[in-house]
């Protein structure tokens, strides 16, 4: 089969690429820093996750045109605030036949758009094959093959089913959801609550405080999400309470660590 291209090789992108490689799927990783590419090619080890060693069917490049042109499925695994610039710079390479998968959780600062909205804003609303892949997942545990669940969401059910099948194995299960707006809002706004949860840890508040924060915080997320056109039911699932729980409680959560440092 054609390789799956990842634009970005951070911890989460690296872990997802490893999932595919273990299934025998060829993977191409693009990274903007040629020194990082050289380092990984020589060591075959990820530069952020020491337990992650790449197999032979994983290739690395700093030629973004090669990465995009080599695959019919392109995974955006770069920081959310960098996605628009990357899409604009490579506007001539993408086409409506490619499935674009975004695994970046966030809201663009200047426009307040979610990542799928940024894609539509750059390429037009006719670009239907955008899939949001989200859920309660830390790369460090996926690499260790701990049971993990994700949700694939798209307005194009065929594309989301393709991604569901691709990112599923004996320790990773991907579900479907058609509420793209709800999945993205849940994945972005839980970060705010996770920072607050970290503040609770930093000032030595206990479990009572954090439980209250998470529960009432989700009530706020649901109210805001519904105002923004999402379905309330979505926040009861993996990209809502599931993602909130893991981000507020996990030792791997960067947002929680930020709050604790504050």
Secondary structure topology:
Blueprint: E1 4-7, H1 11-22, E2 27-30, H2 34-43, E3 58-61, H3 64-69, E4 73-76, H4 83-89, E5 99-102, H5 115-123, E6 130-134, H6 139-143, E7 148-153, H7 157-166, E8 172-177, H8 180-202, H9 207-227, H10 238-249, H11 254-261
Parallel strand pairs: 1-2, 1-4, 2-3, 4-5, 5-6, 7-8
Antiparallel strand pairs: 6-7
Helix pairs in contact: 4-5, 8-9, 8-10, 8-11
Tell me what the structure shows:
This protein is globular. The chain is of the alpha/beta class and 262 residues long. Helix 2 links the parallel strand 2 (27-30) and strand 3 (58-61). The chain has helices spanning 11-22, 34-43, 64-69, 83-89, 115-123, 139-143, 157-166, 180-202, 207-227, 238-249, 254-261; strands at 4-7, 27-30, 58-61, 73-76, 99-102, 130-134, 148-153, 172-177. Strands 3-2-1-4-5-6-7-8 form an 8-stranded mixed beta sheet, with helices on both faces. Helix 4 packs parallel to helix 5 (115-123), helix 8 (180-202) runs antiparallel to helix 9 (207-227) and helix 8 (180-202) packs parallel to helix 10 (238-249).
């Amino acid at each position: 089969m054609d390789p799956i291209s990842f634009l970005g090789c951070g911890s989460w992108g690296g872990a997802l690429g490893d999932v595919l490689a273990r299934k025998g799927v060829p993977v191409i990783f693009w990274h903007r820093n040629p020194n990082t590419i050289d380092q990984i090619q020589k060591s075959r080890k990820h530069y952020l996750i020491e337990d992650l060693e790449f197999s032979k069917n994983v290739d690395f490049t700093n030629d973004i045109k090669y990465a995009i042109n080599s695959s019919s499925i392109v995974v955006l695994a770069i920081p959310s605030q960098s996605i628009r610039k990357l899409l604009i710079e490579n506007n001539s390479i993408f086409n409506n036949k490619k499935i674009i998968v975004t695994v970046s959780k966030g809201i663009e600062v200047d426009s307040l758009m979610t990542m799928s909205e940024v894609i539509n804003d750059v390429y037009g609303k006719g670009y239907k094959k955008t899939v949001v892949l989200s859920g309660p997942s830390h790369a460090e545990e996926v690499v260790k093959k701990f049971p993990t669940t994700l949700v694939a969401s798209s307005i194009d059910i065929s594309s989301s089913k393709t991604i569901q099948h691709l990112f599923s194995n004996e320790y990773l299960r991907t579900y479907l959801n058609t509420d793209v707006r709800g999945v993205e809002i849940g994945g972005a706004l839980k970060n705010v609550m996770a920072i607050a949860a970290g503040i609770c840890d930093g000032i030595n508040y206990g479990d009572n405080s954090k439980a209250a924060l998470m529960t009432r915080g989700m009530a706020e997320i649901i109210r805001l999400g519904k105002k923004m056109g999402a379905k309330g039911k979505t926040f009861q699932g993996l990209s809502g309470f599931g993602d909130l729980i893991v981000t507020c409680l996990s030792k791997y959560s960067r947002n929680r660590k930020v709050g604790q440092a504050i």
